[in-house]
Amino acid sequence: MHQPPEQSLWSGRLDLEDGDAGRRWHQVVAFAQPAAPGIALLGLASDRGVTLNKGRPGAAAGPEALRRNLANLAWHHECSLYDDGDIIVTDDLPAGQQAYGDRLAGLLQQEQFVLGLGGGHEIAWAGYLGCRQYLDAHAPGKALGILNLDAHFDLRRPSPDASSGTPFYQVAQHCGDAGRAFHYACLGVARTANTRALFQRADELRVDYLLDTEFSLSRVEALLRQFLSRLDYLYFTCCLDVFAACHAPGVSAPAALGLEPARVIEVMQLVGELCREYAVTWLLADVAELAPVHDLDSRTARLGARVLDTLVAARRY
Questions:
Q1: Residue 94 contacts residue 162 (beta carbons within 8 Å)
Q2: Tell me: domain 2-315, CATH 1.25.40.10, correct?
Q3: DSSP percent split of the chain into helix, strand, coil, nearest 5
Q4: Is residue 301 exposed (0-12), middle (13-18) or buried (19+ Cβ within 10 Å)?
Q5: Distance between CA atoms of 125 and 180, rounded to whole angstroms?
Q6: Which residues pair with 2 in a beta bridge?
Q7: Quick one: pLDDT at residue 317?
Q8: 87 three-class SS
Q9: What average pLDDT score do residues 281-300 get?
Q10: What is the pLDDT of residues 188-237, one digit of tens each?
């Protein structure tokens, strides 16, 4: 079910004495569909996938918390901003993911750079469906890749249901069935959070990955250059459990080690630079696994909002 945006979430400080140079996100966001290319927000209010993955629920409230924390951020971008509301997921996760994918494809058709607001990481399968639907209609022979910042591969096999732990296995199967190459890279993988079976599956599927203990900017850049050079289009997804638990306690599975936010911000900026260098069109970026009920002083929500703001700057729409 699609729920229109809740406009009351968008409130914050006003610095009217500074004119347009003093604007914040809440003063820029619009609720009528834009006529020109820009940024569009679309939420997947779901923790059904987390529950099916045996995690602690709470991510369904993530999109609302992200909007509240985006609202008061200073606006430094030269583009329009549109809030398209949320897809609400109850028990039927596949139907909710398909509804999200359909709506996403429509926004891509309007030439919007879409920021997805999770929700559990089941948003990744929904995001892929939307990108694939759009590309099948407009660029069917082009290569789509998924770059995931995550402590987990999320390559589990459905058993029997798909979940927040299965999206990239689902993508791999979908690519195989269609005779397409599976382009997937995962940065920040925690060895202790993924079984040997998952590492074996990643190797079998030729996943490009770096462990959290290997996360230097030089190694990331080398991997990204190799990965992006094979692509025409990019979908970027960030699971907030990739960050150290002191920065991101409000997730389903807090990291024992995790990454430092400043380094991840550098990586997102690098992704934008390399997309321009390799002429890769960046279609979609999302943030997943924010569970406000488990958050401390909105640390995780604030970090998620900062990630989204950085993604807009890196994309340079």
A1: yes
A2: no
A3: 45, 20, 35
A4: buried
A5: 16
A6: 87
A7: 55
A8: strand
A9: 97
A10: 999 999 999 999 999 999 999 999 999 999 999 999 999 999 999 999 99
